[in-house]
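Sequence in, structure out.
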Amino acid sequence: MSEAVVEVKNLCKSYGKIKAVDDISFEVSRIIKFKDKNTHVR
């Protein structure tokens, strides 16, 4: 498998006392660019 382009470990996100994300980890090995009529990719 290829090397990770993006690696996230132990991500947490709270909004006040509410936990939206609690201890998530993941890797992205490839990024694909999309372009539509409302997006400008440079």
